[in-house]
């Protein structure tokens, strides 16, 4: 859209592009996420940050036995530069992907430090009210791309995300090659999934030479509150509670992690088949529209949402058509695609 005559403002709550870590890696799919990257003319830039060598999987059980190894124990070291052949699902660090997208648009479009409190309907459009009490200009269209707890969604639907009964605890091991070479070899260049007893450890190589591990398991909110883990001192208790009898080699993904970078998340999702009645001048994309568990399409759906909505809007403006028709066409396609992917997750 920035290359068209359509005027855009992005309200971003974070103070700057580098204000926090953006989390782990993402696999960007040919049939979805890469389509937006190509359409935006960013393929060459993407090749510089993509890691096709990261698209390899190892699967082990709790005894440490490997049942799948797509790369071999001595997986290649990360180069930091993707080759010309990206493959179907190259990995990319979230921070690098975000930086690439931000740098591709004029700086004045993004209003940093602008946390949205609510969106108000008026006679001539919608006004974005910021947390500091300031009002924006009036917009013909407001797109909620503001995540699971969207401030735009309440204008379209009463549905809110519910706790899915799954917990993710994120652990991070810095400088893994020099500090823990055995762990580096075990994880390899891609992802190691250790699965047993309806729980798992998912370890991913990062572009900075670290390993990020997600411990995932089912638990009630009450159980979590009762345990009250303090990860500055409770890594051993956590590993003993959740992964008793598991291979010590794989438990080290938790036990050797840096204490200052542990993040516990209760995972939420919107109901399967979630949709809303079209309302002129409003729509949603990404997690705001269809937040799901992180076992499916996720970011690729969000990128494809952005591409398809953008294409519909550009065509409507070009042909001087009603925007509502364009938005409805986008929403109907997105609803069907998201329903399928939420079920898969």
UniProtKB/TrEMBL annotation:
Gene Ontology molecular function, alphabetical: FAD binding; monooxygenase activity
Domain FAD-binding: 7-343
Superkingdom of the source species: Eukaryota
Any Pfam family matching the protein: FAD_binding_3
Positions of region (Disordered): 1-27
PANTHER family listed in its UniProt record: FAD DEPENDENT OXIDOREDUCTASE DOMAIN-CONTAINING PROTEIN, MONOOXYGENASE ASQM-RELATED
Record-given protein name: FAD binding domain protein
Provenance organism: Cylindrobasidium torrendii FP15055 ss-10
Upper classification of the organism: Eukaryota, Fungi, Dikarya, Basidiomycota, Agaricomycotina
